[in-house]
Design goal:
Blueprint: E1 11-13, H1 14-21, H2 25-33, E2 39-41, E3 50-53, H3 54-73, H4 82-92, E4 97-98, E5 102-103, H5 104-128, H6 130-173
Length: 178
């Protein structure tokens, strides 16, 4: 059976899930293999059937519906590049400004330029291996941080032991004269 939890879960078979989604059982199995459904094996056996968490599936369906609604609201919104796009925006919205000062067409052209520059920078960093070098440096910094924390923890531990040793000496011999 599926892993037990403190809350009672309802599990759906592949067939039940297929009916709920309006898909074939094979399509549901493909979705499970792709990690697109909240599923797990019913037992630890290699041949155990898959089961789908009903509540998680309903949550996923609701999220998918919200996404579809957002996409429907955005239908017809076009984001473009190039001179043709910028010319069309300038002609269609000659008096539209951003923040009351910059013309929309100028702002879009500037953003387009920044985006293209970032794309070029990304290409250069990828080709040059800079991303890998940065990851390596970040890994080394993480290792250094972990080592520094370990040294600090050891220092604190030794200081605590030394302080306790002084207390024991004081208890045995009496406090040192100042």
């Amino acid at each position: 059976m599926p892993k037990k939890s403190t809350t009672s879960r309802k599990w759906l078979t592949v067939r039940q899930t297929a009916r709920r989604l309006g898909e074939t059982e094979e399509a549901v199995r493909r979705m499970i293999r792709a990690g697109d459904l909240p599923a797990q094996k019913a037992t630890s056996s290699a041949r155990a059937p898959w089961v789908v968490d009903a509540l998680a599936l309903e949550d996923q369906i609701a999220e998918d519906e919200q996404l579809a609604k957002r996409r429907a609201r955005m239908a017809g919104v076009v984001v473009g590049y190039g001179e043709d796009f910028h010319r069309q925006v300038a002609e269609a919205h000659p008096d539209t400004t951003v923040d009351g000062s910059t013309k929309l067409s100028e702002e879009l052209r500037a953003r387009d330029g920044r985006f293209r520059a970032l794309e070029q920078l990304d290409d250069v960093l990828r080709v040059s291996g800079a991303y890998e070098a940065f990851e390596s440096a970040a890994d080394q910094a993480d290792a250094d941080e972990a080592r520094a924390r370990a040294i600090a923890a050891e220092y604190v531990r030794r200081e605590r032991i030394l302080r306790r040793a002084h207390e024991l000496v004081d208890d045995e011999l009496g406090p040192a004269d100042s």
